Amino acid sequence: MTTRTLAVVSAGLSTPSSTRLLADRLAAATVAALRERGEDATVEVVELREHARDLADAFVTGFPNAALRAAVETVTGADAVLAVTPVFTASYSGLFKSFVDVLEEDALTGKPVLLAATAGTARHSLVLEHAMRPLFSFLRAVTVPTAVFAASEDWAGGDGGELGRRITRAAGELADVVTGRPASARPADPFADVPSFEDLLRGQA
């Protein structure tokens, strides 16, 4: 049985967060959909709130540290990505965009991606189409047709409500794309031979 790797990118800021809750439900539904298609799956979660300082350091120094490199490799080496962000000021969060900005330009080319977002009101639901989908189209990722938005009132319906149905549909679409592709191999670390910032400073002494 082929085992696929799903990378979940969650940009929620609180603990717990509705963003992580949605990410977990999407991951569980995708694992179930893959098993229905005769394949197994493992899930690796990248919780961006844990890398907020790492991202700031990477922008200042130009070099991601070991923890951030591992997070990037988790995403770029996965067979599919579930990208989930809260909505801030009618768009994806700055933390979410910062992580995308440290990826190589072609890191997600051809990668199946499921898009999702959370907010307090359904008025922000178009963020999936006017902000997130164009972003991942620029990165040449393969986004599945159904994107999932969860407002505060959506959680009341449980698995049998409209949110549950959207999650199931999107997970099935992602599973269909993934099973039609060969399993991914972990990419070579592009920073393996790059000296550390401390070594560079010592070299100037």
TrEMBL record:
One of its GO terms (molecular function) is oxidoreductase activity. Keywords: Flavoprotein, FMN, Oxidoreductase. Signal peptide: none annotated. InterPro entries: CE1759_FMN_reduct, Flavoprotein-like_sf, FMN_Rdtase-like_dom, NAD(P)H-dep_FMN_reductase. SUPFAM superfamilies: Flavoproteins. Residues 6-155 form the NADPH-dependent FMN reductase-like domain. Pfam families: FMN_red. Transmembrane segments: none annotated. NCBIfam families: LLM_duo_CE1759. This is FMN reductase. It comes from Geodermatophilus tzadiensis.
